[in-house]
Amino acid sequence: MKKNKSMIIVFLTPAILSYIIIFLYPSIRTAIMSFYHVENITDSISKWKFVGYDNYLFLKNSSLFIQSMKNLVNIWFWGGIIVFVLAITFAVILTSGVKGKSFYRAIIYLPNVVSAVAMGTMWMQYVYSSRYGLLKNVFETIGMKKAASIQWTSPDMIFISLLIAYCFGMVGYYMLIFMAAIERIPQDFYEAATLAGANGFQKFRHITLPLLKDVFRTNIVLWTITSVAFFIWSQVFSPLNPEPGTVAPMVYMYQMVFGNNMVVTDRNVGAGAAVGIVLTLIVVIMFVVTSKLFKEEKYEY
After folding, report:
1. Domain count within the chain
2. What is the pLDDT of residues 116-141, one digit of tens each?
3. Is residue 267 within 8 Å of residue 39, measured between CB atoms?
4. What is the CATH number for 82?
């Protein structure tokens, strides 16, 4: 028994130390830093100036931060609807016995394999281009001149363009999760429903959806984390002088910590830390809310 305890300690110690050094310590330091004014991220604690809740009040009064939070909400809500609807639609189709399932699954998932930088550049240069973009050529070919003249990267359209491109790259990932869950549902359920006279929609509504409740809860939490961490796509769509429509909280935090005179004139690492705390609280709150809305139920099948 003593040997077993010793072995447990030996194997757990590296994991615990890694957790403390890599996750716990930086998290605690960030939480403390959010109550101080810090000029540079490398400054020692002795150079920090305690300001209490001033950093959080600064964020509350920052129009750019408020805009970034609005962008985050829109990405999470509208993007979530688009991604989940398409993902579950593809998942249901591909698990219904369609031929070439592996091929279609690979094609839909392919954007997740490509780098976000490469994918964003492709959309900016070859899809949304006002000179030779794919959308421009397609609309011109079918005679929709007005649609072909849309400036997809203009300040008025940049957020919609960004959201479409981002959702395109995320559908495949959530589709695979839904597919894995649907394939676990016994075919006996569907066969019994067919014998009872249920059509495809009724089987989806009364069998598939209820048995995907836990998967929806997990996917909503994953989507929340992904939305909160939204950064690369924003940088790709407006790399030099970020448009208000592309600024996400992570971008704002980056600018507060490392500085950019085009966006943030007063660099304050403490305010950047406050942004990190706010985003962490959002993820925690969403986890609690989804756990309440989608209560865990044990199904045996």
Report:
1. 1
2. 888 988 898 889 988 888 888 888 88
3. yes
4. 1.10.3720.10
